[in-house]
Amino acid sequence: MKQMLIKDDVATALTELSKNGKKPTLVALRAALGNRGSITTLVKLKRELESAAQEVAYSEDALQAFKGVWNMAYEEGRRQQQIVIADLQENIQALAVENERLEAATAAAECRSIELERAKSAAQTEMFESRAKLERELSQAQAALAQANAQAAKALENLAAVQSAHAAEISVLQRRINEMTQQVHEQELKRVRAESILESQRTKGNANA
Protein backbone atom coordinates (compact mmCIF):
# COMPACT_ATOMS: atom_id res chain seq x y z
CA MET A 1 0.00 0.00 0.00
CA LYS A 2 1.38 3.42 -0.96
CA GLN A 3 2.29 5.85 1.84
CA MET A 4 0.05 8.91 2.09
CA LEU A 5 1.63 12.12 0.81
CA ILE A 6 1.87 14.93 3.40
CA LYS A 7 2.99 18.55 3.34
CA ASP A 8 6.31 17.77 5.00
CA ASP A 9 7.16 15.42 2.11
CA VAL A 10 6.42 18.16 -0.39
CA ALA A 11 8.41 20.75 1.56
CA THR A 12 11.40 18.38 1.80
CA ALA A 13 11.25 17.61 -1.91
CA LEU A 14 11.11 21.32 -2.81
CA THR A 15 14.14 21.99 -0.63
CA GLU A 16 16.09 19.16 -2.23
CA LEU A 17 15.28 20.40 -5.73
CA SER A 18 16.39 23.90 -4.79
CA LYS A 19 19.66 22.63 -3.34
CA ASN A 20 20.37 20.60 -6.48
CA GLY A 21 19.72 23.61 -8.70
CA LYS A 22 16.69 22.01 -10.37
CA LYS A 23 13.52 23.77 -11.31
CA PRO A 24 10.73 22.81 -8.94
CA THR A 25 8.27 21.88 -11.65
CA LEU A 26 5.33 19.64 -10.85
CA VAL A 27 6.89 16.86 -12.91
CA ALA A 28 10.26 17.22 -11.13
CA LEU A 29 8.52 17.50 -7.76
CA ARG A 30 6.48 14.37 -8.35
CA ALA A 31 9.62 12.53 -9.48
CA ALA A 32 11.43 13.66 -6.31
CA LEU A 33 8.51 12.25 -4.32
CA GLY A 34 8.83 8.87 -6.00
CA ASN A 35 5.87 9.52 -8.30
CA ARG A 36 3.56 9.69 -5.31
CA GLY A 37 0.49 11.84 -5.37
CA SER A 38 -1.45 13.40 -8.24
CA ILE A 39 -0.96 16.84 -9.78
CA THR A 40 -4.08 18.04 -7.97
CA THR A 41 -2.74 16.81 -4.61
CA LEU A 42 0.63 18.46 -5.21
CA VAL A 43 -1.00 21.77 -6.13
CA LYS A 44 -3.18 21.59 -3.01
CA LEU A 45 -0.24 20.84 -0.69
CA LYS A 46 1.86 23.61 -2.25
CA ARG A 47 -0.96 25.99 -1.73
CA GLU A 48 -1.19 24.99 1.94
CA LEU A 49 2.59 25.36 2.30
CA GLU A 50 2.38 28.82 0.84
CA SER A 51 -0.35 29.78 3.29
CA ALA A 52 1.66 28.31 6.18
CA ALA A 53 4.77 30.17 5.01
CA GLN A 54 2.89 33.47 5.21
CA GLU A 55 2.05 32.77 8.86
CA VAL A 56 5.65 31.89 9.83
CA ALA A 57 8.15 34.74 10.45
CA TYR A 58 10.41 34.01 7.51
CA SER A 59 12.77 36.59 6.17
CA GLU A 60 11.72 38.57 3.13
CA ASP A 61 14.32 36.82 1.02
CA ALA A 62 13.16 33.37 2.10
CA LEU A 63 9.54 34.31 1.44
CA GLN A 64 10.38 35.66 -1.99
CA ALA A 65 12.36 32.52 -2.76
CA PHE A 66 9.45 30.35 -1.74
CA LYS A 67 7.04 32.40 -3.80
CA GLY A 68 9.38 32.08 -6.77
CA VAL A 69 9.48 28.32 -6.36
CA TRP A 70 5.76 28.20 -5.97
CA ASN A 71 5.11 30.39 -9.01
CA MET A 72 7.37 28.26 -11.17
CA ALA A 73 5.68 25.11 -9.94
CA TYR A 74 2.27 26.66 -10.51
CA GLU A 75 3.16 27.80 -14.04
CA GLU A 76 4.55 24.36 -14.87
CA GLY A 77 1.40 22.74 -13.55
CA ARG A 78 -0.75 25.07 -15.62
CA ARG A 79 1.34 24.35 -18.70
CA GLN A 80 0.94 20.63 -18.13
CA GLN A 81 -2.79 21.10 -17.70
CA GLN A 82 -2.97 23.08 -20.94
CA ILE A 83 -1.15 20.27 -22.73
CA VAL A 84 -3.60 17.75 -21.31
CA ILE A 85 -6.54 19.99 -22.25
CA ALA A 86 -5.17 20.40 -25.78
CA ASP A 87 -4.81 16.61 -26.08
CA LEU A 88 -8.35 16.13 -24.82
CA GLN A 89 -9.69 18.71 -27.27
CA GLU A 90 -7.84 17.02 -30.11
CA ASN A 91 -9.27 13.65 -29.06
CA ILE A 92 -12.75 15.15 -28.82
CA GLN A 93 -12.40 16.61 -32.32
CA ALA A 94 -11.17 13.27 -33.68
CA LEU A 95 -14.08 11.50 -32.00
CA ALA A 96 -16.50 14.04 -33.47
CA VAL A 97 -15.10 13.42 -36.96
CA GLU A 98 -15.33 9.67 -36.45
CA ASN A 99 -18.87 10.06 -35.14
CA GLU A 100 -19.85 12.05 -38.24
CA ARG A 101 -18.29 9.36 -40.43
CA LEU A 102 -20.17 6.61 -38.59
CA GLU A 103 -23.42 8.57 -38.81
CA ALA A 104 -22.92 9.04 -42.56
CA ALA A 105 -22.10 5.34 -42.96
CA THR A 106 -25.19 4.41 -40.94
CA ALA A 107 -27.39 6.71 -43.04
CA ALA A 108 -25.94 5.23 -46.24
CA ALA A 109 -26.53 1.71 -44.93
CA GLU A 110 -30.12 2.59 -44.03
CA CYS A 111 -30.70 4.05 -47.51
CA ARG A 112 -29.18 0.95 -49.09
CA SER A 113 -31.38 -1.24 -46.91
CA ILE A 114 -34.47 0.69 -48.01
CA GLU A 115 -33.44 0.38 -51.67
CA LEU A 116 -32.86 -3.36 -51.29
CA GLU A 117 -36.25 -3.77 -49.57
CA ARG A 118 -37.95 -1.87 -52.40
CA ALA A 119 -36.10 -3.95 -55.01
CA LYS A 120 -37.11 -7.13 -53.17
CA SER A 121 -40.74 -6.01 -53.05
CA ALA A 122 -40.70 -5.11 -56.75
CA ALA A 123 -39.11 -8.47 -57.63
CA GLN A 124 -41.71 -10.34 -55.58
CA THR A 125 -44.53 -8.38 -57.24
CA GLU A 126 -43.07 -9.09 -60.69
CA MET A 127 -42.65 -12.77 -59.80
CA PHE A 128 -46.27 -13.03 -58.60
CA GLU A 129 -47.52 -11.26 -61.73
CA SER A 130 -45.42 -13.51 -63.99
CA ARG A 131 -46.63 -16.58 -62.15
CA ALA A 132 -50.26 -15.49 -62.48
CA LYS A 133 -49.72 -14.79 -66.19
CA LEU A 134 -48.12 -18.21 -66.74
CA GLU A 135 -50.96 -19.89 -64.86
CA ARG A 136 -53.51 -18.09 -67.05
CA GLU A 137 -51.63 -19.06 -70.21
CA LEU A 138 -51.36 -22.66 -69.00
CA SER A 139 -55.07 -22.75 -68.23
CA GLN A 140 -55.86 -21.34 -71.67
CA ALA A 141 -53.52 -23.85 -73.32
CA GLN A 142 -55.12 -26.72 -71.40
CA ALA A 143 -58.60 -25.51 -72.41
CA ALA A 144 -57.50 -25.20 -76.06
CA LEU A 145 -55.98 -28.69 -75.92
CA ALA A 146 -59.15 -30.13 -74.42
CA GLN A 147 -61.19 -28.42 -77.13
CA ALA A 148 -58.84 -29.72 -79.83
CA ASN A 149 -59.07 -33.23 -78.39
CA ALA A 150 -62.87 -32.99 -78.37
CA GLN A 151 -62.90 -31.77 -81.97
CA ALA A 152 -60.50 -34.55 -83.00
CA ALA A 153 -62.71 -37.16 -81.30
CA LYS A 154 -65.76 -35.72 -83.06
CA ALA A 155 -63.94 -35.77 -86.40
CA LEU A 156 -62.91 -39.40 -85.85
CA GLU A 157 -66.49 -40.22 -84.94
CA ASN A 158 -67.74 -38.52 -88.11
CA LEU A 159 -65.07 -40.29 -90.19
CA ALA A 160 -66.09 -43.63 -88.74
CA ALA A 161 -69.73 -42.85 -89.50
CA VAL A 162 -68.87 -41.83 -93.07
CA GLN A 163 -66.71 -44.93 -93.54
CA SER A 164 -69.53 -47.09 -92.17
CA ALA A 165 -72.07 -45.41 -94.48
CA HIS A 166 -69.77 -45.85 -97.49
CA ALA A 167 -69.21 -49.46 -96.59
CA ALA A 168 -72.98 -50.01 -96.53
CA GLU A 169 -73.40 -48.28 -99.88
CA ILE A 170 -70.58 -50.31 -101.41
CA SER A 171 -72.15 -53.50 -100.08
CA VAL A 172 -75.50 -52.58 -101.67
CA LEU A 173 -73.83 -51.68 -104.96
CA GLN A 174 -71.86 -54.93 -104.96
CA ARG A 175 -75.02 -56.90 -104.32
CA ARG A 176 -76.79 -55.14 -107.19
CA ILE A 177 -73.84 -55.75 -109.49
CA ASN A 178 -73.92 -59.43 -108.60
CA GLU A 179 -77.68 -59.58 -109.24
CA MET A 180 -77.33 -57.83 -112.59
CA THR A 181 -74.43 -60.10 -113.56
CA GLN A 182 -76.61 -63.09 -112.69
CA GLN A 183 -79.45 -61.70 -114.77
CA VAL A 184 -77.16 -61.09 -117.73
CA HIS A 185 -75.83 -64.63 -117.44
CA GLU A 186 -79.36 -66.03 -117.36
CA GLN A 187 -80.37 -63.93 -120.36
CA GLU A 188 -77.31 -65.15 -122.21
CA LEU A 189 -78.31 -68.77 -121.47
CA LYS A 190 -81.85 -68.11 -122.68
CA ARG A 191 -80.50 -66.56 -125.87
CA VAL A 192 -78.22 -69.51 -126.50
CA ARG A 193 -81.10 -71.96 -125.90
CA ALA A 194 -83.38 -69.95 -128.18
CA GLU A 195 -80.78 -69.89 -130.94
CA SER A 196 -80.21 -73.59 -130.49
CA ILE A 197 -83.93 -74.36 -130.77
CA LEU A 198 -84.27 -72.07 -133.75
CA GLU A 199 -81.32 -73.71 -135.48
CA SER A 200 -82.80 -77.15 -134.76
CA GLN A 201 -86.10 -76.12 -136.22
CA ARG A 202 -84.41 -74.74 -139.34
CA THR A 203 -82.54 -77.97 -139.80
CA LYS A 204 -85.76 -79.99 -139.54
CA GLY A 205 -87.49 -77.67 -142.00
CA ASN A 206 -84.79 -78.07 -144.58
CA ALA A 207 -84.92 -81.84 -144.19
CA ASN A 208 -88.64 -81.99 -144.78
CA ALA A 209 -88.35 -79.82 -147.87
A few lines on this structure:
This protein is mainly α and 209 residues long.
Provide keyphrases for this structure.
rod-shaped; 209 residues; mainly alpha
Mean pLDDT: 80
Q: What distance separates the N and C termini?
A: 190 Å
In DSSP terms (H or I, runs of 4 or more residues), the helix count works out at 4
Shape designation: rod-shaped
Main beta sheet strand tally, sense and closure: none
Order of helices and strands: HHHH
Rg computed from alpha carbons, rounded to a whole number of angstroms? 68 Å
**Low-pLDDT residue intervals, each spanning 5 or more residues:** none
State the helical fraction: over 70%
The percentage of residues in β strands lies in: under 5%
Structural class: mainly alpha
Write down how many β-strands occur, each being a DSSP E stretch of 2 or more residues.
Answer: 0
How is this structure best described in words?
With 209 residues, this protein is mainly α. It has a domain at 7-101. It is 89% helix and 0% strand. It has helices at 7-19, 26-32, 39-55, 60-208. Helix 3 packs antiparallel against helix 4. The protein is rod-shaped. The model has no long low-confidence stretch (mean pLDDT 80).
Element layout with pairings:
Blueprint: H1 7-19, H2 26-32, H3 39-55, H4 60-208
Helix pairs in contact: 3-4
